[in-house]
Design goal:
The complex is a heterodimer of chains A (247) and B (107).
Chain A (H helix, E strand, L loop, with lengths): L4 H11 L3 H21 L4 H10 L3 H13 L3 H12 L2 H8 L8 H9 L3 H12 L5 H25 L14 H13 L3 H19 L6 H35 L1
Helix pairs in contact in A: 2-3, 2-4, 2-9, 3-9, 4-5, 6-8, 7-9, 8-10, 11-12
Chain B lengths: L2 H26 L6 H24 E2 L2 E2 L6 H16 L2 H18 L1
Antiparallel strand pairs in B: 1-2
Classes of the chains: A mainly alpha (247), B mainly alpha (107).
């Protein structure tokens, strides 16, 4: 039966629930960013513009520190590029699910693809929920929370910055724990996660603090794909050999 | 830095952030990929989530924090167990935050 009016709105709103944990994490982190930004000398307008058009937590926090130190624009832009290169891999990994999307939808979706929204979408897409409208609505809700948090932080200025009593600082780590565990569907996934996580820590410890995530992802995914390909080849030779006997 | 310079910096940051986010999806979707690349992309989510998560639990203020009082690490146990048992992102976040909040309140 087709749904109309309220029922339809309810169904759509239900699809937005994966955005809730992201919002809970983005509000306080955005708030902290807003506080730091105005303290570093950015105006409220500039603080909000950065959250609107850059929308990347770690590089925004980094940029605020750089602005405060008076580091030149080119260095800030180049560091931002390096910090955000990891999204190349995320965008590529979602791409097979976006075949039927319109170009404008792809362009809009990419604008709001963050670590957190990627984590949410990779799980949804893998489960077959690949329609563009709910995906973009989730992105918009998350982005709004980020901008709202930034605005509140900018307005609060240096009055408050401690969100720890509510443990809101743990919302995003907890969300990553859930999304990681929900994505683990085979023993090979466990090994890929273990290798990716360990490589990330080792590379970070080795001083590659901007590159550890992207390099560790390449290492982990390559191991996963290599083992899978090797297993398939072994399976094919076996089934090719067994095919004659079975038929 | 002048306001114009700040705005130009922000525009530059927006551009270098947007391109890596949109270009792969724009050019790779609908394209037939080599089976190895296809398999590789399937393992990216698990690898990248682990690569983001572990430092967020073990690094604090630019230093490794492997001490017994690393609350983030301890809270990962009940949170992980909740995720495994309930398969719910929301329940996991609530349990994780509750454990951290309680520990801060009591300890």
């Amino acid at each position: 039966m087709p749904e109309f009016g309220l029922a339809r709105i309810k169904t759509f709103a239900k699809k937005l629930t994966p955005a809730l944990p992201v919002m809970m994490g983005y509000l306080p982190v955005g708030f902290a960013y807003g506080v730091l930004a105005v303290n570093a000398g950015l105006t409220t307008g500039e603080t909000i513009i950065m959250s609107l058009i850059v929308y990347a937590g770690s590089s925004q926090l980094m940029a605020v520190g750089f602005f405060g130190l008076g580091i030149n624009p080119l260095s800030i832009i180049l560091t931002t590029l390096v910090v955000n290169l990891r999204h190349l891999l995320m965008s590529a990994s979602l791409s097979p699910h976006m075949k039927h999307w319109r170009k404008l939808e792809v362009a809009g979706f990419g604008f709001e693809l963050t670590d957190e929204t990627f984590a949410v979408h990779s799980l949804r897409f893998a489960g077959g929920e690949t329609a563009a409208p709910p995906a973009m609505a989730i992105n918009l809700v998350c982005h709004s929370a980020w901008v709202a948090g930034s605005l509140l932080g900018a307005l609060a200025g240096n009055l408050i910055s401690d969100v720890r009593p509510f443990a809101l600082d743990y919302a995003l780590p907890a969300m990553f724990i859930a999304l990681l565990i929900l994505q683990v569907r085979s023993r090979l996934h466990v090994w890929v996660a273990a290798l990716g996580g360990a490589a990330s820590l080792v590379l970070w410890g080795a001083g590659l603090t901007q590159w550890n995530v992207i390099l560790a992802t390449v290492i982990g995914a390559t191991m996963g794909a290599a083992v899978e390909t090797w297993h398939k080849k072994k399976g094919e030779t076996r089934s090719a050999a067994g095919a004659g006997a079975e038929s | 830095m002048t306001d114009t310079a700040v705005l130009i910096t922000l525009l530059g940051m927006a551009l270098v952030t947007y391109l890596p986010r949109v270009l792969p999806a724009w050019f790779l979707r609908g394209r037939k990929l080599h089976p190895f690349v296809e398999a590789w992309l399937k393992y990216v989510p698990v690898a990248v989530l682990a690569a983001l998560l572990l430092p967020s639990l073990l690094v604090d203020g630019g230093k490794f924090k492997l001490a017994w009082d690393n609350l983030y690490l301890w809270a990962a146990l009940p949170a992980g167990l909740t995720a495994w048992k309930t398969r719910s992102m929301f329940a996991t976040v609530l349990v994780g935050m509750a454990v951290v909040a309680l520990a801060r309140l009591l300890i």
